[in-house]
Specification:
Layout (H helix, E strand, L loop, with lengths): L2 H41 L17 H15 L4 H12 L14 H27 L1
Helix pairs in contact: 1-2
């Protein structure tokens, strides 16, 4: 083989090497993007087996299956809102960390404010009563 043929042969081989590297980078980048999106979504979902933990923090079987489901849906190309809607449809309001404001949850949304107003009113009443005596 002449030097020119060797040069062309190595140039041809290096072309395959660089094509392989560029493809790996895109795949790795997509996996990182999917795992970051999975973390964001799983932080918005509540583990129904655990008390007060989100799916991301929990190690229960439920949270593991939800994380796997989220990754599968992301790899299929579904967006964040579609995935959350599907999980919400399947498990109900109990799986959302921030439940929607609905008529049946009105009491849960208003109660903290009522307790706060009652507490401030009660303390004000006691302070005014103690000041007068």
């Amino acid at each position: 083989m002449t030097y020119k043929n060797r040069f062309l042969f190595f140039l041809f081989l290096s072309l395959f090497f660089f094509i392989g590297i560029s493809d790996y980078g895109e795949t790795y980048s997509a996996e990182v993007d999917n795992s970051e999106m999975m973390i964001e979504i799983s932080k918005e979902l509540k583990c129904i087996e655990c008390d007060g933990q989100n799916v991301y923090e929990s190690n229960s079987n439920f949270s593991k299956s939800i994380k796997a489901y989220i990754l599968d849906q992301l790899s299929e190309g579904n967006d964040r809102s579609t995935i959350i809607e599907n999980i919400h449809f399947r498990y109900g309001d109990a799986v959302l960390m921030k439940p929607p404001f609905q008529q049946n949850t009105l009491f849960l949304w208003i109660m903290p404010f009522l307790i706060l107003i009652f507490g401030v009113g009660f303390l004000s009443y006691k302070l005014i009563k103690n000041k007068k005596s």
